[in-house]
Design a protein that fits this description.
mainly alpha
Length: 168
């Protein structure tokens, strides 16, 4: 729990929320984080019970039903040159979701955790390419804390797993 708390502190250092002025967007971001955490827990539990493609399909259908009522309020004409994007995003999302469920059903979370750090690298690269931003010194401290706590949790989990194995 110390490692998880330290990682959360690292996230707060990177984000630096202003608690005095929480707005709707901040609450939406918090809700998104909670939904992703819930999704990962469900993927881990369901991945061993059913085929990952079936779980991914049900997740997509439920998401569609939840978002469908909002379509009339946000739908706008799509440029013909962007149709490829409209088709490729769901295909890539479906493939990544299915592969994530498959991985979670076959490997321990501690084995998969290091792969999630590519999200940090991707966020830095996208921020640089799209917005011309580079993390400041305090953000690097938060990133280092997140990574360090993740490594500590993974090592502790590996030690715990080794301790349970019978000795021959």
């Amino acid at each position: 729990w110390l490692g998880v708390s330290g990682g959360f502190l690292g996230v707060l250092i990177v984000i630096r929320p202003e608690f005095g002025s929480l707005d709707t967007n901040a609450l939406l971001i918090l809700g998104t984080g909670l939904c992703v955490a819930l999704q990962m827990l469900l993927n881990r539990k369901l991945g061993v019970l059913a085929d990952p493609a079936v779980i991914s399909l049900w997740g997509a259908m439920i998401s569609m039903l939840i978002m469908l009522p909002f379509v009339p309020f946000f739908l706008s004409p799509i440029e013909a040159g962007l149709i490829w994007l409209l088709v490729s995003i769901p295909c890539v999302a479906a493939a990544s979701q299915t592969l994530m469920i498959l991985a979670m059903s076959r490997a321990e979370a501690s084995v998969l955790a290091p792969f999630t750090y590519t999200e940090i690298i991707s966020a830095i690269v996208i921020g640089l390419m799209m917005f011309g931003t580079v993390p400041d010194a305090l953000s690097w401290v938060g990133i280092a804390l997140i990574t360090l706590c993740g490594v500590i949790v993974a090592r502790a989990k590996a030690r715990e797993t080794r301790g349970r194995q019978p000795k021959i």
